Automatic annotation (TrEMBL):
Pfam families xref list: Amidohydro_2 (PF04909)
Positions of the Amidohydrolase-related domain: 79-272
Organism superkingdom: Bacteria
Keywords of the record: Lyase
GO molecular function, one term: carboxy-lyase activity
Keyword Transferase: no
Protein name per UniProt: Amidohydrolase-related domain-containing protein
Coiled-coil stretches: none
InterPro entries: ACMSD, Amidohydro-rel, Metal_Hydrolase
Amino acid sequence: MIIDAHVHLSTYTGKGNFLEGCLDVLLGEMKQNGIDYAIVIPDNIEDDPKIAHLENTLELIKKTNKLFALGSPQIIQRGSSEVDKYRRLLKGGAIKGLKLFSGHDPYYPNDDRCLSYYELLQELDYPVVIHTGDHSSNPNITDPLKYNDPKYIVEIAKKYPKLKVIITHYYWPKIEYCYEVTKDVPNIYFEIAGLADDEVIKASGGIEKIKEVLKKTIKDRYNKVIFGTDWPLCDFDGKSGFAYHIELVKSLGLSPDIEKMIFSQNAISVYNIKR
C-alpha cells in the first residue's frame, strides 16, 4: 500500500481544465502509479478558481473513498477565530489534521495566532503540517525561509510535547540544517513532498545529498518519515511526480518493513486513518 500524504487539487499545471477534471486526473495517475490513498491539502488562497480551498476540497472528495483532507486555517485573514470550526471538522472526521502555510503567508509557526490550533490538535491527537522551504506563492514574500525556519518549529514541538508536528519539504535547500536542528525532538515528523523535484534537488546539493539526509533521518526515526509528493507539481521529463518520489524511497536501500512504514504505515498512525 502507498499513501501520498501531500497532494493538491489545482489546474495550474494543466492537470485538467477545471477542479472536477483535476480530480479525475489525480485519481487516474494514482491508479497508474500504485498510489492507494492520498491526503488532499486545501490551499490557503480562497478566491482562486484554479486551486481547491477547504470547502470545495471537502465537496470534491465525497466522490471517492481514496482521498482524505486536511484543514487550512487562514491565519492572516482570521487569526485564531476558526478554532471551533476546525474542532467540529476534526471531531466529525471530515479532516485529518491541519496545514499551516508559514512562508506562503507572512507569519511564523510560533505566531500567537497559531497557538489555539496547536492546543486543539494536541487535545484531539491530530497532526499539524507546517510548510517549509524556499517557495512562496505570495509575490510579496522574497525570503520564505525567514518565516518557516525549523528553529521555530522546534520551539512549538517543545511547547506542545504531545503534538504531532510534521515538517514538509524539509526546509529545502537547507536540508542538512533541518536535520541537525530537529534530530533530538521526538514529536517532530518529516514528510518528503517535493524532495524528488528537479529544482529542489539542484538547489539542495544534488540527489545524493537528499538521499544522505533521508537515510540519516530514517535511521534515527524510521517511524516518523512520511511519503508525500506535492502532486500535481514535480513532473519533469514526461514522468509523474508520483513516480519520482516512489523511486526516491526505493533508492534508499531500506528493508521491506521500513519501506512499508514510509509508504503507508506511518501515515496511517500519524493521521489516525481507518479504512
